[in-house]
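Appendix B. Raw example, untouched.
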Amino acid sequence: MKPMAVSAIDAGRTPALAGAKRVHSLKEPGMKKVLMILGFVFIVLVGGFIGLLALAQITGGQMQEEFFDAVLSGDPKQVTALFHPALIEEVDEPVLAAWMQCLKAERGDFKGLRKTYFHTSTKYEGGAKITESRGTVDFQKGPVQSELGYRDGKLIRFHIDWDGMPNDWFKGPIGTELYRRRGDAFLRAFLEGQADEAFAMMHPALKRAVPLEKLTKMIQRVTERAGALKSVVYDSEELQTADTVRLKVFYKVVCEKAETTASADFQFVDLKGHLIAFNLTGEED
C-alpha cells in the first residue's frame, strides 16, 4: 500500500503562521476513519486466524476421540467404518481386533487428549481435503503417541505407539474364518481355470515366484488331470508363530476325476494376512 500524506496546520505549533486563523485539514477525519477501519480489519483477520486454528484443534480432537472410542469398543467394524476405501484394502478385521485387544490390555481406558501436545493441520491436494492430527493421548496406564491422517473425512492412515509396546504383540488373528474363505476362493478360481482371478489374490512376492504365464500352465495341468471341480471343503488349519506368524489352511478337494488335498498359506504383515503359498498334490509354490 502506498504511504498516505496527512497534514495538519496548527498556529500553536507552526511559528511562521503565528496569529493566523487555525485551519483544520479536511483529510484528517477521513484518515482517522481509514486507520480505524484498517485496524478493525486487522483485528478481524487475526481473530479469524486464531478462530480457524482453534476450530482445527477442535476438529482434530474430535477425530482422535472418535477413533479411540471405536478402538476401545472392541468391535473392529466400528473402526473400519471410519476408514477410507484405500485403507480398508490394507487392513484385515481379525488382525485389527488383535491390535485393539493389545492396546486395551497395555494402556487401559481412554482418559483424554493433552491440549498442549497436539497439532492439527489441513491442506488440499488434487481437490481432496487432507487433515493430519497428531499428539499425545492419555490412557489409564500411560500415554500413547497418536498420528491420524484423513482424506475427505475418512481415515487414510494411523500410527499409534507407546513406550514399552511389545514387538511381538501379534500372536494370531482373532478368528480365521476370513482366511478360510480366501483360501477357498483362491482354490476354486485355480481349479475352475480362472487364472487372472487367482493371480489377483496372490501376494506380490508369490506373483514374482509364479508369474501369470506359469500359473496358467499349472492350472492347465491340474484341470486336465483332475477334471471339473465338484467341491472344496475346509478340513483343518495350523498357526505358526516361531519366526513370523503364518496360518496354513487345509482343504479336501473333489474333482470329476480325482480327489486330493490342498492348502493355502497366509503370512501376516502389518495388519493384513497375505497369500504367500499354496499347494495341491503335485503342485506346490
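End of appendix B.
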